[in-house]
Specification:
single chain, 67 residues, alpha/beta, 37% helix, 3 strands
Length: 67
């Protein structure tokens, strides 16, 4: 299904860990959907995130949408 985009909020603390866990799960267990886009919405910019979080977002191919 090409038109499916996964979207979630990138919270802080446990919410951040949960969002990244969801993205890893989609990439690992998503089957035919594992390569679909993942968008994470955040009130924090990329500069406000930890280096580890930024690296994981990049490695999973997540689009960070700041609002």
């Amino acid at each position: 299904m090409k038109d499916l985009i996964f979207a979630c909020m990138l919270g802080s603390g446990e919410g951040e860990k949960d969002a990244l866990r969801l993205a890893r799960s989609i990439r690992t267990f998503g089957g035919e959907f594992s390569f679909n886009p993942i968008w994470m919405f955040s009130q924090r910019s990329e500069h406000d995130l930890s280096e580890a979080t930024c690296q994981e977002i990049f490695s999973l191919g997540i689009r960070l949408v700041t609002f």
